[in-house]
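Hello, quick one for you while I still have it in my head. A protein chain has come my way and I'm curious about its shape. I'm sending you its amino acid sequence along with the C-alpha cells. I'd be grateful if you could look everything over and explain what you see. Here's the protein in full, and shout if anything looks odd to you:
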Amino acid sequence: MQSKNLVSACLMGHAVRYDGRAKPLLHPAIETWRAAGRLVTICPEMSAGMMVPRPPAEIAEAATGEDVLAGKARVVELTGADVTEEFLQAARNAVGLARQTGCRYALLIDGSPSCGSGFIYDGTFSGRKQAGNGVTAAALKADGVEVFSDHEIEQLIERIAEQASK
C-alpha cells in the first residue's frame, strides 16, 4: 500500500491562510493522490484554534522552527502578541495526524512560520526571506516525515516513485 501525504489545507484550496485566502496548488499529481485517497489535509494553525483571518506571524529574531521547538525562539504576530504556544500545539497536532494516518511525506506551503521548509520570513515583517523551516515543518522532519515545499512537488513525485520501486 502506498503511503499517504500530509498536505497544507491552503494548497488544497481551503481559505485558511492568515489573510483568509487559499493558495491552491494545481498539479495533476494532487488530483491523482486525492482520487486514490492518499491526501491528509491540515492547516496546523487552525488545528490549534487560531482564527481566520488572523494577524500575520513570523518567528522572531531570524530564528527557525527548530529554535522554537528547542524553546530558544518565539513566534509573534505583527501586533506583538506571542503565539508561540499556538504554533507549538499546531506542530504537535500535525505530527500526531501524520502518525495516526501513516503519512511518510508532507507537502507544505513555503514561507509560513508553521509550514515553511525552503524559506521563512526573518521576523521583522519587512518581507525579507531566509532559509529555514517553520515550526510544523521542523517537527515533522524531526519525527521522520519527509517534508517538501509546494515548489518541490516534482521532487516529491520522484521520491514517492523511488520508494514504490523498492
